[in-house]
Amino acid sequence: MTHSTTTGPAIDAKVDARVTGAHDDDDDIDDDEQDATNGDGKKKKKKKAKKKGGSGAKVGQTEPPRVGLSKLFPDGVYPEGELQEYKDDNIWRTTSEEKRAAERAAMEDPSLTYQNIRRAAEVHRQVRAYARKAIRPGMRMMEIADLIEDGTRALVEESGLESGIGFPTGLSLNNCAAHYTPNAGDTIVLQKEDVLKVDIGVHVNGRICDSAFTLTFEPTYNNLLEAVKAATNAGIREAGIDARLGEIGAIIQETMESYEVEVGGKVLPVKSIENLSGHTIVPYMIHGGDRGKSVLLVKNNDQTRMEEGEYYAIETFGSTGRGRVVESGDCSHYAKIYNAPHTPLRLQTAKSLLKTINKHFDTLPFCRRYLDRLGESKYLLALNHLVAQGIVQDYPPLCDQRGAMTAQFEHTILLRPTVKEVISRGNDY
Ligand code: HZT
Ligand code: MN
Ligand code: MN
């Protein structure tokens, strides 16, 4: 395999990658990146060293990305995400000696340290930068999934349950908003008219970075994307210790629904999808399990408050359709249910499959492709049995009505004692 290098020697990598990390909002870097990659796809070698202090992303990384992050960050210190001050009532936290002490404690305790999630987030930024460049109409969905997941496995230095993919790569198209990834035999080819949601999960020691963006190849849906990006950012801004979940939903909806989009000469309102939500994340569990909290995308009466130390995936979905999803199509995503009942399994194939799941995924979501690559075959009956027994949860694709278009943007945030950290923020979204 030939990997062209985007940059100079790896020795420069640490400094440069950090420059381009989380909160570099130099706009002309984005333009620069585009110039370097549009066209025939051959122009991969771009001199970056010259542009001081803003050489664009992933210096020291290859294309496709294959350099493990420990090579780029030998001291094990990963870039902080975007820091946002808590709002009005909570601004005292910034200077509170008690809260600063809590922060120090968190930084010292290896089980609580933020380095795990920051490493996952840096992998996310580097993988998605490549995904954005490489994904083109004409590609099969399977190729797209592999391109992303091969990158994630390499950069996170996949190792058992210590580091790896956080959940199956979501590649939902058009009216489908979430939880589609190809199964073996899938023949779908990406079209230039498609609206593709790219939802990537990376974990380090169970700390999952859950972040997603939307790709289009025609300008028609630019406003839809702007609406959803703005709604997600409004949700992030509103989030904070003691913030009420219902109020965050209201602001998300207000922001989202202040946009409209013109499609084929018709003006359509953008609707917040009313039955999708953001969620807490706890180690090895993409949604906070029994005590999980959800952040709806519409105004509601949930008085539950966010709390110090929580991790949230703040994600919003906009739609040109009804703004409601239903389960539709073949299922690809699954996850073991935390606290599943101890059901004795009579079906030997199900017992054996459960062993595989326990060993390779524990409670992390997985998809059929991941079972295929582990050498499992003809497992569908067993898998369906585990679902029927309440041991595994299935997560079928979630789609709005035919003809509707949906978009998503998502970030993982951490409610630190003194400050809100938008872990997955990049110079792209
Ligand atoms: C479930 C299965 C997966 C969590 C949200 C989500 C992608 O809709 C409580 C609130 C991956 C993730 C999830 F394989 N879901 N974020 N990114 N999907 S969810 C949910 O099931 S549970 C939202
Ligand atoms: Mn996601
Ligand atoms: Mn999520």
UniProtKB/TrEMBL annotation:
This is Peptidase M24, structural domain-containing protein.
